[in-house]
Amino acid sequence: MKTQSGFTLMEIMVVLVIIGILSAAFYPAISGLPEKAKVNEAKSRLMAISAAIESYRTTEGEYPTDYLPNGLAVNSINNRSEALFLALFSADYTGQRPSEEWLVNTDNDEATRNLTVLGNRSLFEIGDGWGNPIAYFDSLHYGDRRATIIMRDIEYGDEDEVVPHRNSKTDSYSAPNSFQLVSAGSDGEFGTDDDIYSFTN
Ligand SMILES: [Ca+2]
Ligand SMILES: [Ca+2]
To answer: pLDDT value at position 75?
Structure first.
């Protein structure tokens, strides 16, 4: 009498169906973890950068400007974020700084001269947990209503615009006497629900 060895087609199919059900059940939990960790990472970066900005104000007497010095930039992309980088990494500034590991340069540009402690002319931005520049607005310039253009990383491959946040009920600017930091969040797009702010609305 022959003994049957191996699996029948039916047995294999049952196993595949079970694997499918288990994957579907656990996928959201597994895939959600890195995103949640990145959101938390972005939030803690915004807090650390905010603390550095307050430190700058304590030592320099005013918030870092979000305007680049005249003639320094070669393009008009990421300028306000780059101005914040220049202020916090200026050779003259000795207060608190964000981590150098957070620096990105999504438009890959250089300044016409070296103004930072890093010893090169790279015009960095401070990035969020997804490698996109964090937008910075100095309250002195909210009223310009000029949209800052932020180049997102090459994975998204295009430009985006962001304006200072306003309270939806009163239409007045949020954080009216200080500054705003904005991360585009996990979707890499400004102006959507997952954006992360340095202030509470
Ligand atoms: Ca840049
Ligand atoms: Ca977003």
So the answer is: 82
